[in-house]
TrEMBL record:
Pfam families (alphabetical): Glyoxalase
Organism domain of life: Bacteria
Span of domain VOC: 5-131
Record-linked CDD domains: VOC_like (cd08357)
Protein's UniProt name: VOC domain-containing protein
InterPro entries in the cross-refs: Glyas_Bleomycin-R_OHBP_Dase, Glyas_Fos-R_dOase_dom, VOC_core
Amino acid sequence: MSEFKPFHLAFPIRDIEETRKFYGDLLGCAIGRSTDKWIDFNFFGHQLSAHIKPEELHQMSANQVDGKNVPVRHFGVILPWEEWHQLADTLQEYGIDFIIEPYIRFKGEVGEQATMFFLDPCGNALEFKSFWDESQIFAK
């Protein structure tokens, strides 16, 4: 893989405080700059900007992947194997209502990965995944 290059993603929310608690307290993302209209997070080395814009929050559409309804619009991060499992345990203990429970997708196939999907408090879908073998991230 090439040198790490952080991405920036802006997304809609309805409330700064509930978003701060979710991304900051639950997911452990450091908080950057903020105003009463937006808040930035260090999302595992990437910059997320959550902007109050409730009219931009949409119904979720999904596509079938590995027999599951995967939200089309989602974002997330690929974590190291043990870190992914620790986060899955933390979220289960917290009582997160998963869209797709933590499981191993494409087991025994090219691209085998641990994955889970859940919503933030504003209905934005997140996917966290991990590859035991990181060379499989872009394998065909």
